[in-house]
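dude i think i finally got it to work??
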Amino acid sequence: LGIYGLIIAVIISNEVTTVAEKAPSYTTFKAFAHFGGGLACGLSGLAAGMAIGIVGETLTQASAAQPKLFVGMVLILIFAEALGLYGLIVGLILAAKASS
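look at this
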């Protein structure tokens, strides 16, 4: 999950430019699009991390009592990871919109 934030940060930081010839080339639209992309990726990573933590704790307790539940709980962990991936996709789309 942490690598998703790093990917978004590198993409956004490459788009940020300085003032050239007294005319800002980094517009307000780009700034808000980059802010939204970073926020989408960060908050979805936070939600995915919380979901993984809660499911992971429950997985360890449930698998000790009933080993049959292990495969189903691992699938739920994969779905929780997908939340962070969706945030990365939204962040990439917003960053791409800002550069076009």
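The longest helix spans residues 28-65.
im so relieved honestly
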